[in-house]
Amino acid sequence: MGFEKNLNSDLSAERKIIIRTLIPLVEPLQAVLPAPSEVVLHDLSKLPNSIVAIAGNITERSIGGVATNTLMQDASSGNLDTKYNYNTKAADGSDVSCSTIVFRASNNVPVAALCVIKDVSVWKNLQEALSSLIPPAVVDNAQTPPPDAEVFSKDVDELAADLLKSAIARAGSPVANMTKSQKIAVVADLQDRGFFVLKESVEKVASALEVTRFTIYNYLKELGNRK
After folding, report:
1. Which of 1, 134, 152, 211 is 20 to 30 A from 87 via CA?
2. What is the pTM of this model?
3. Does the pLDDT value for residue 132 go beyond 80?
4. CATH number attached to the domain at 2-127
């Protein structure tokens, strides 16, 4: 018991050192990137309100702001990995290219995520305008974007609303017409995406699916029994 306590204490201290080391790098890194750009540092122990440093204003977030739906899902599923140059859209519809660098503790547990976001709308428009003059690229280094568009929510309520809207849309049926199995599928989808770490998550999904809180708890219990 004492060994485990000391181990947890050591890992907590290591996490703090990693975060403290990365925070001063955020502004200088953003300053040397082509504008417009944004650099965001997430402390993964603080999800969903995980932003501890940010420079730039593409996503209109601030310190204490929330992670994206994609980062939440990756953290929940245990699939947090560094990935480069995947494309998505900002809230205003502009095209952005994102890279996420994951930093791990000595026990390989993800500790921090440094996200670089670049607005590529200007370059995309220029490329389209000159497409008849420029031969197609031989190599495309951009990675395949995530199955769902990454959403840069401004707060937990907006993040919850986005996750709920997407999960219900994937169910393929209006809530009023959903069967029990479809509603359980929505809950399973949300669980996979880390929804239930959010404050008042059960109440929010119960309201959206037009059932009681106790029904959602029963769905979660049923899903747990299936594993």
Report:
1. 134
2. 0.77
3. no
4. 3.30.450.20
